[in-house]
Amino acid sequence: MVQKILVPIAFTKYSKGILNYAAELAKFSEAELIVAHVINERDLEAVDKITSYGYKVDVAHYVETIKKERKEELDKLLADLTLADNKVTYTFCVGEPTNELLKLVVDRNVDMVVMGVKGNSLSHIFTGSVAERMFRKCPVTLVSYRGDDVALRLRKNFEKQREKE
């Protein structure tokens, strides 16, 4: 029985769809929905590096600003959910995204993770996406969400490939 569902949100154009999909699963299984956003430590290292060039940037202030902005975005996303408030919690983490998500899975006894398949950052080209690493390392069921436009594109690509065979 699924009692806790973790849904990592990266605040992309797919976030609303991912969150709604996870909420429907949570509603169906009467599970708690844990919404998480990870502030990548690499972003903080970049901010820290800027300070070494003489610019006055406070990393702690930067983190608080990001948390505040993301909380406002999250509140907008959560406003449309039909889950009871006591069934939804959210958390912000700072660190390497895959590690932070795995910690949440283990520490909060999560039964399922629902997440998007791929981010659009340049870094994932070199290091692989968080989703790819989660699929390899996650100890619980991981459901990949694809928006309608992505699903349509993948279907078309497959059909083209099949025609060539």
Q: What order do the helices and strands come in, and which of them pair?
A:
Layout: E1 4-8, H1 15-29, E2 32-40, H2 41-52, H3 59-79, E3 88-95, H4 97-107, E4 112-116, H5 123-127, H6 130-137, E5 141-145, H7 148-164
Parallel strand pairs: 1-2, 1-4, 2-3, 4-5
Helix pairs in contact: 4-6
Radius of gyration: 18 Å
Low-confidence sequence ranges: 121-127
Based on CA inertia axes, which overall geometry fits? globular
What is the residue-averaged pLDDT?
87
- Estimated helix fraction: 40-55%
Give the helix tally: 7
In CATH's first tier, which class applies? Alpha Beta
Quickly count the domains. 1
CATH architecture: 3-Layer(aba) Sandwich
Q: Walk across the major sheet and give the strand order.
A: 3-2-1-4-5
| Protein structure class | alpha/beta
The beta-strand count equals 5
N- to C-terminal separation? 42 Å
* CATH H-level homologous superfamily name: HUPs
User: Secondary-structure element order, as H and E?
Assistant: EHEHHEHEHHEH
Sheet having the most strands: 5 strands, parallel
**CATH topology type:** Rossmann fold
Strand content: 15-25%
